[in-house]
Every structure is written in structure tokens, then in C-alpha cells.
Amino acid sequence: MDSTLSLTKYWLENIVIGLDLCPFARIPFESGLIRVVECKKSDEDDQMIFFLEELEFLNQAMPSDVSTTVIVYPNASNDFSLFNDFIGELEFMLEEAALENIFQLVAFHPEFVFENTDSNEIGNLVNRSPFPTLHILRSEEVARAMKNPADGEVISFNNNKKLNELSSEAIDQLFYYLKK
């Protein structure tokens, strides 16, 4: 059985980077600039404290040493809606700390569903990770990577196209962790 971190690294390497779902992830990943940590806490308050500690670590780290942090929450809610609410609370904490212009948060979850989509739509696979996961990104790096405001739409369109071109067998093989 895969450990939490090894399965998360599989997801990063084979899904996010391997399928090029995030065209900006390859260089920092291959350069060792993406910090991947596991929060083993079950209590939501403890999970929030873990987030704040990671946020402080990232805020103190030089971008040339640590670009972003991926926090894996294996004991967070399996219900995507509840996890999404949790992420909303973390975003509020980011604002309260006056760091919302420095960092941005992106949620991933095994049951992730984009707003206004059906849960079975293939495009949801883009954000379906093995475990509830939070990515803390530096806003400055995102702005540098996304030179054009339309880049996000182009990436989304390309991701849907890539996923729709995969056979159901390939999807089952790549996303095997969603079948557990």
C-alpha cells in the first residue's frame, strides 16, 4: 500500500506534471522547490494551526529555496463540500494575516467538483488528488507564470481536451487511487 506522501508524489509526477495539467509545475518540481508535507492531525483546529505554521515557514523561506507548499490532509473530511468550507476558513485566515496578496490557495480532493459542473464530468479529474490537499502558491510567481488573464481559460480548455482524449483504461490506470 502506498504511503500518503508517496501517493501524493505519484499524483504530482504522473497526473499534474505527467499530463501537463499545470504547465508551471514541472520546473519547480524538478528543481526541488515544491515542499510536500503531511498533516496527520484529525482535529480541524489542529489542521488550521498546521496550515498557519506552514504559511509562516513559506513566508520566511526564500522563493529560490521553497517555491510552494503542498499540504496533504489525509485525515480531513472525505466530503468535498466540507473540505471546501475548511479551505474557505483558511482563506479567511490568510486575509486576517494580511497575506492574501502574497499567497493564494488551491484545493484538491478525491471528490473535487468544479462549480456548475456535474460530479461525473471528466474535467473534475484535474483537481482530484489522492487525499484532501491544499497548495499554497506565491501570488507573485503565479502572476509571472500567467502573463495573460486568458491563460487560465486556455489551460482549462487544454486540460479538458487532454483528459477527453484519454481512453477509459488509461484514466483508470492513471487515477487508480480514486478507486480505493
Count up the domains: 1
Terminal residue distance? 11 Å
In percent, how much strand structure appears in the residues?
5-15%
Reported for the largest beta sheet, the result is: 4 strands, mixed
Output the strand order for the largest sheet. Answer: 1-2-4-3
Strand and helix order:
HHEHEHEEHHH
What is the C-alpha radius of gyration, as a whole number of Å?
16 Å
DSSP, total strands: 4
Number of helices: 7
How much helix, percentage-wise, in residues?
Answer: 40-55%
Describe the global form.
globular
Q: Which structural class best describes the helix and strand composition? A: alpha+beta
Mean pLDDT: 92
Low-pLDDT runs of 5+ residues are: none
Give your account of this protein's structure.
The chain is built from 7 helices and 4 strands, in the order ααβαβαββααα. By secondary structure, the chain is α+β, with helices and mostly antiparallel strands. Strands 1-2-4-3 form a 4-stranded mixed β-sheet, with helices on both faces. The longest helix is centred in the N-terminal third of the chain and has 17 residues. The model has no long low-confidence stretch (mean pLDDT 92).
Question: What does the secondary structure layout of this molecule look like, with pairings?
Answer:
Blueprint: H1 4-17, H2 26-30, E1 34-38, H3 44-60, E2 68-72, H4 80-96, E3 103-108, E4 133-138, H5 139-145, H6 151-165, H7 168-174
